[in-house]
């Protein structure tokens, strides 16, 4: 049946068909129920057209400016064209496509639902199987440092944890911890989606897993059950443990466990130990400022340490206070009053860590962190067995010497002369002993044997000048210039103020003259010296590319450890073994975690190392290092070094009678040692006298005498190349007997000639 044009028009113009009553009862047309359908239809059609004409006329008048009005016939024709007979096929096609899409969406949603349900179920089963029983006994297990003989020599432990109930912990401390570590702690289920999302965005921006996004519950899980690797698998495990902990313990119980087990630096776990360490009081007596400082430590205990980095600690504390203000746990007045308070530490000295062999143990911890990625907390809590190269006999010998005040310059009473020594086995690179300070040593204090950087003075000459010169054909008998020298404004002078015109390289080493090595470095090139020093394991900045390199005039300086490693290469026939203290790290059950791999490089040819060893032997035997000679006749080689006081008005009255640093670096066939002596801060009241410059050589002699007691005396090894050359020289030289026969043959004609002359004289006299 064909669609009515009126109905089609109404369906396309619903807003213009409002007067529906006129369509039911058109004006001027009477209702005729008995009339024919055809007549009724015509009457309705006429009435509709009349009504449409009125409406269209109004519309045409209102929109005459927009163009001519559309005629009804045109509208009707369009409606007829868009009738149901033409629209039906497209609607059917669209309906079929929608049904296919809807079916696909339903199946996809179902599959996603099943996959998600399966994952959640498997994850829940995995979480359920996690073991968190350690939370019932969260105290860490001590680790042990083992010596070269596999014997424990020092314990690393956090066993001084003093658990305190949450009720005794100040509200300010709890609020501070929550503000800086996990502001939605009491709202989430062990993990915070907001924090995870924020961390994920930052990780994507940086291209690495740097951001943590960990809640307090996750940190507790990580500290007790996991390592600190920034890996996805570790984060998933952390999340699982956090969820299980959150269901097994109340929020207050979790917070109490966290505050009693987290690491606060300076060898302290738990808020009670930290409060006593930093402020000398129990945790319940902490002020708001003190609480905020402690709350900021767990993120980076060393970086924000108020002992080592007070400025960063203050900045971190004030950040915690600002977060507390932002979260409404303190008001504006309290914040303003507290943020301006300085950090006031009152450590409990009776609780400072005084373990065995602190300098060596401190370096072991540094090496474990730097080379093998362990954290301080892991070292002190995981029950590790750290196997090292320590020789207890050598370590005790060094510590005994450093306790003997009579061997050191007296100095002013307020600050003693300080010193540091490293002793290593140059054949393996294993460090046998370290002493980093005189007097009492605290846990992870400043280690002058490994961390101090000072100018090495004349001890640098064999590395920067004489070593590379030997490689370029110079010999101990080569003549070097020793006169007035001015190279680009640089004017070195000898320590005695004299010049000698020319001296041999051997004499320059024995007497430690300054002008010859500067002249020689200029001859062979500064790059040659820098390259040799780099091969010796010492990287220098570009600013050290100048002739003062010859005399050890470095911008930053070197440590005793670096100098011991470099001289050890000379003692080891030119082969440098990387200095190290750790050989391996295992669990308490012996499961291997780390195995050290030897690292060796070639410093110089064995023949050149042997020549340098002979020169340094002479320096100890008859040169400036005679105080280092061992009394048992053991072969000893080495070099002294001193650095001048700064050329400032402060030291003008002292002149040349003082020094800033004094060194001795030397070796025997068994051990190499480097010793530095000086003040942490040099001023007009704290400096070394000229007599104090010989002290490091004395310390070397005393340490080696004790360390090598009962060790057989042996000579320095001779390289095969040198042995072959000596053998060839011996074969080329005739023996004394051969020389005697040869001389006899040479003299025989002369004797006969003299005899003939005498006979002729006799005959003449007879005549």
UniProtKB/TrEMBL annotation:
Compositional bias of type Low complexity: which residue ranges? 53-67
Q: Where is the Glycosyl transferase family domain?
A: 152-324
Q: Where is the composition biased (Basic and acidic residues)?
A: 740-767
Q: Does the keyword Cytoplasm apply?
A: no
Q: Which GO terms describe its cellular component?
A: outer membrane-bounded periplasmic space
GO MF, one annotated term: penicillin binding
What Pfam families does the record tag this protein with? Transgly, Transpeptidase
| Residue ranges of the region described as Disordered | 1-94, 728-767
Reaction(s) catalysed (UniProt annotation)? [GlcNAc-(1->4)-Mur2Ac(oyl-L-Ala-gamma-D-Glu-L-Lys-D-Ala-D-Ala)](n)-di-trans,octa-cis-undecaprenyl diphosphate + beta-D-GlcNAc-(1->4)-Mur2Ac(oyl-L-Ala-gamma-D-Glu-L-Lys-D-Ala-D-Ala)-di-trans,octa-cis-undecaprenyl diphosphate = [GlcNAc-(1->4)-Mur2Ac(oyl-L-Ala-gamma-D-Glu-L-Lys-D-Ala-D-Ala)](n+1)-di-trans,octa-cis-undecaprenyl diphosphate + di-trans,octa-cis-undecaprenyl diphosphate + H(+); Preferential cleavage: (Ac)2-L-Lys-D-Ala-|-D-Ala. Also transpeptidation of peptidyl-alanyl moieties that are N-acyl substituents of D-alanine
Q: Which keywords describe this protein according to UniProt? A: Carboxypeptidase, Cell membrane, Cell shape, Cell wall biogenesis/degradation, Glycosyltransferase, Hydrolase, Membrane, Multifunctional enzyme, Peptidoglycan synthesis, Protease, Transferase, Transmembrane, Transmembrane helix
The UniProt similarity line reads: In the C-terminal section; belongs to the transpeptidase family. In the N-terminal section; belongs to the glycosyltransferase 51 family.
Report what the protein is called. Answer: Penicillin-binding protein
Instruction: Provide the species name.
Output: Paenibacillus naphthalenovorans
